[in-house]
């Protein structure tokens, strides 16, 4: 991955740039990296703070060789890949994954992942994996509201992060796990994800499109959904939600 690389200075969003390349037939593994995004976007229609030269803002193109179900599986794979790459570069940091794919240090978000796809019926034509890593941001790069829930790798570790080395590590991990996933399915990814999760085993509020659900997340199902135990002892699986307060 990353052998076809477009490095840009300022873009609205690397997702849009890569989509253009994808529509023109770009191959799997094509990567767009920007120093700065003027309209970086996050999940659930939120914006993503992407100041110049301080973070890793990039999008990776996947063209799965087999029809993949529209499930959270690849999103969860991306979270495992990023967390392993960051751990490799900064072994002292303890990185947890909040379902589905936020990476946290001490409960604060250091990275986010956004998958966008061109879906034709059940079959996915291509998938754009957007990855944002707040590498060397300083406190003043965040709004006061964001500072209570987000942190950069530099703020958390006291070290300036070598962005090129981290990008290389992410691509290597991603390629390895994607290969494993295509060969062996979701089971090994699921195990790796569960081992790094900070969401499991604690009473949690989940804001789903159908309303708030409170329960204890137990693990993932085969599709990558989150299995929840409800207060009445019954079980439910959630495929799309914002994970709120837990503990
Ligand atoms: C989230 O946690 O809400 C997902 C954030 C994803 C941000 C990345 S930065 C690179 C790519 N381009 C975007 O506009 N968004 C993603």
From TrEMBL:
Its EC number is 6.3.4.15. Keywords: ATP-binding, Biotin, DNA-binding, Ligase, Nucleotide-binding, Repressor, Transcription, Transcription regulation. Biotin binds at residues 37, 41-43, 109. Residues 1-182 form the BPL/LPL catalytic domain. GO terms for molecular function: biotin--[biotin carboxyl-carrier protein] ligase activity. The keyword Nucleotide-binding applies. It catalyses: biotin + L-lysyl-[protein] + ATP = N(6)-biotinyl-L-lysyl-[protein] + AMP + diphosphate + H(+). Belongs to the biotin--protein ligase family. Acts both as a biotin--[acetyl-CoA-carboxylase] ligase and a repressor. This is Bifunctional ligase/repressor BirA. It comes from Cohnella cellulosilytica. The gene is birA. The chain holds residues 79 to 325 of 325 of the full protein.
